[in-house]
Amino acid sequence: MVDAAPLQADPRWRRALELDAQGQALSAEAQYAALLREHAGEPQLLRRMARLAMQRGDAARAASLMLGCRRGGEDDDSIAIETAHALAEAGRPVDAEAELERLVQREPDHALGWLLLGRLREGNGAALAALAAWFQAVVLARQMGRWFDASTTPRTWAPLVAHALERVRAGQRELLMEVLSELQTAYGASDMRRVEKALRGWLREFDATPADPRQRPRFLYFPDLPNTAYHDPMLQPWAARLRDAFPVIREEALVATRAERELPDFIAPPRNGPKDTFVGGDGPEPSWKAFFFYRHGERYDANHERAPRTSAVLESIELCRIRDEAPEILFSVLRPGSHIKPHHGVSNVRLVMHLPLVVPPGCALRVIDHGDHEWQEGRLMMFDDTYLHEAWNRSERTRLILLMDCWNPHLHASEKAAVKRVVETISGLRLATHHDAAAAAGGRVMQE
């Protein structure tokens, strides 16, 4: 990188900036050119000259100057965007696209880079690639609270943002089919057979309703898995490790949940509905409380620090990791006289594992028409929560378990990777197509 200090001290530089500000383009450019002979490759001079070249319509000259910035060691995001613009205006759209590809590879969270890349791809006739870029742009921006309305969208980019939003809304199926195609290329069509069936069912291309009327996933049904409510927990390769850690996990859970009234609700009561929508009962304070290790995939670092041995066990096993969705792991606290009302889970791609820690008499889980399960301290149980189920604590003491979601063990490794990609894409589409930030914040597809 060229040392800019001598340039800043040169009075001719200050004079050139004054001429530029006054609109005396030719005089300013002459000054810049004279300085460039002494400060060869200086990025500030090259950029100033490139902007003046663009103003007079000489995009080819501007592109050449901007490419010189990179050769001089400057390669930040604004230079990449200006370079791509100059290249596009100079009739070099493929080179312009390559410039933005370099930007988003270097900075994958650069929403504006993805937005402009989408425009270039569309102009180059690559409609599907443009849609993919716009999807990335909108999701990234909205995750940062931007591009929801006029107050969160820069006026300069508002028309292009609106165009990108409309294309993403209109192209959801197209985008998901492209994701499927990429997965089939990566893993083979035969390995993706069940994934394809699950996705087409989600798209309502056929009736994917499970045969058992008590099984009703609220989000995604994955076909051709064993249709049973209860599963052997030892199907998980790590189950014995979790079971053997029962004494230390129980010890930490008792300390962590001591102030149970101060813990958050596992499911917050609806704003405009009865408080007992999810949890009722005849106890003095019916409630379902949670000490979260993970919530919607977000790691609660402070809680991990408060229960370090439990944390170490959890981080040593395979977790169901889906961005913004999973895992969901907690000390589940069901207070005396509480009843978790019948409900369905979101998808059978994940099951729910329980490690009972403190179980007074009169506590049980019921999967409707599939039998009751009375927890036993230290004994793992695993079930498919897409079946209608409920739970209760009819004692005068608190029931405490470690609750976690986990991959359905009947999924192959390639299917887990594919489900992760598909769900993250659907989740991103949900975020991208909501009209306001509040709705987007509640738009997780796998939430309870």
Protein described:
The chain folds into 3 domains: 1-107, Tetratricopeptide repeat domain (Serine Threonine Protein Phosphatase 5, Tetratricopeptide repeat, Alpha Horseshoe), CATH 1.25.40; 112-208 and 412-448, no CATH class; 230-410, B-lactam Antibiotic, Isopenicillin N Synthase, Chain (Jelly Rolls, Sandwich), CATH 2.60.120.330. The chain is elongated, with a radius of gyration of 29 Å. The chain has 18 helices and 12 strands. The strands form 2 sheets. The protein has a 7-stranded antiparallel beta sheet with strand order 1-10-7-12-5-3-4. Strands 2-6-11-8-9 form a 5-stranded antiparallel beta sheet, with no helix packed on it. The two termini are 53 Å apart. A hairpin with a 3-residue loop joins strand 8 and strand 9 (371-373). It has helices spanning 5-9, 11-21, 25-38, 43-55, 59-71, 77-89, 93-106, 111-123, 127-143, 158-170, 172-187, 193-202, 239-244, 246-256, 301-306, 308-315, 413-433, 437-441; strands at residues 230-231, 279-280, 288-295, 298-299, 329-334, 338-343, 350-358, 363-367, 371-373, 381-383, 389-393, 399-407.
